[in-house]
């Protein structure tokens, strides 16, 4: 899974395009019923990127999903594809829907969350599984472990 930067991606119709100029910090599959509804599928797939390395380069994403004060889901205004998520008060990362990248060959979910709500058939090859979400204190170690895992996975042999 070699990753060539910058990564670019976009929505179904192409009106919104975005770019990530740094490798992801963590990759995830989320089995929660909220993600099941927003994807109309078994789980969501996302990659967290440092905010300063992520940019929308075409189009104007609009809020959708929960439209709550604490979590912001952004969508394409035309085709309504779910693009990325930001948490209120958390400026350090943006959670981008990984299947929207033009090249997804590098992607595999390192962690899976909300397995307590997963569809019975749904399984992903995540290295770490959580019944709900990891504790806030665990993220630093997970980000470090992901970096080692992704680095090892991309080196030959
Ligand atoms: Zn679109
Ligand atoms: Zn979820």
Give the tags:
alpha+beta, glutathione-dependent formaldehyde- activating enzyme (gfa), Mss4-like_sf, single chain, 2 helices, 157 residues, 8-stranded mixed β-sheet, 3-stranded antiparallel β-sheet, 15% helix, binds zinc ion, 31% strand
In brief, what are we looking at here?
With 157 residues, this protein is α+β, with helices and mostly antiparallel strands.
What does this structure look like?
The protein contains 2 helices and 11 strands, in the order βββαββββββββα. It has helices spanning 33-39, 139-154; strands spanning 7-10, 17-20, 26-30, 44-50, 54-58, 62-64, 71-75, 82-87, 93-97, 111-113, 128-129. The strands form 2 sheets. An 8-stranded mixed beta sheet has the order 6-7-8-9-4-3-10-11. β7 and β8 form a beta hairpin. The chain binds zinc ion (2 copies). One zinc ion binds next to loops.
Question: How do the strands and helices of this protein lay out in sequence?
Answer:
Layout (H helix, E strand, L loop, with lengths): L6 E4 L6 E4 L5 E5 L2 H7 L4 E7 L3 E5 L3 E3 L6 E5 L6 E6 L5 E5 L13 E3 L14 E2 L9 H16 L3
Parallel strand pairs: 3-10, 10-11
Antiparallel strand pairs: 1-2, 2-5, 3-4, 4-9, 6-7, 7-8, 8-9
Family: Belongs to the Gfa family.
GO molecular function: carbon-sulfur lyase activity; metal ion binding
Keywords: Lyase, Metal-binding, Zinc
